[in-house]
């Protein structure tokens, strides 16, 4: 009985270790993707009158404006403050995503020196 098309002979222990590592890495990526998918980030103005919430894709999903903000800010100022808060939240989201991805990349896995 030979190896069927699409199958790999994992009799070689180094190859088996690589395939196991690939499976583990795929599982870690799946967990990371799931964690990021449900992520939301909130940013609030210094005067605490405006709050934005963005999702993992950077889309605005929540906006809270205290009625006092309508009297304190002119329309253009209010729009600018909302845009600033969305950028701030998106920067935090990017930082969080990079940190999680960095943790994944830092994992060195088994040594593959015998594959050189």
From TrEMBL:
Entries under InterPro entries matching the protein: YbaB-like_sf, YbaB/EbfC
SUPFAM superfamilies assigned to the protein according to its UniProt record, in alphabetical order: YbaB-like (SSF82607)
Gene3D superfamilies cross-referenced by the UniProt entry: Nucleoid-associated protein YbaB-like domain (3.30.1310.10)
One matching Pfam family: YbaB_DNA_bd
Official protein name in the record: YbaB/EbfC family nucleoid-associated protein
């Amino acid at each position: 009985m030979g190896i069927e098309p699409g199958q790999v002979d994992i009799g070689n222990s180094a190859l088996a270790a690589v395939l196991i590592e690939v499976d583990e890495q795929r599982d870690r990526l799946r967990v990371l993707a799931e964690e990021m998918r449900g992520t939301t980030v909130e940013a609030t103005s210094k005067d605490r009158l405006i709050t934005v919430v963005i999702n993992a894709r950077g889309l605005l999903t929540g906006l809270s404006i205290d009625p006092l903000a309508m009297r304190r800010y002119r329309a253009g100022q209010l729009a600018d403050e909302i845009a600033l808060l969305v950028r701030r939240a998106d920067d935090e989201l990017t930082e969080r995503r990079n940190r999680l991805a960095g943790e994944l990349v830092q994992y060195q896995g088994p040594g593959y020196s015998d594959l050189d």
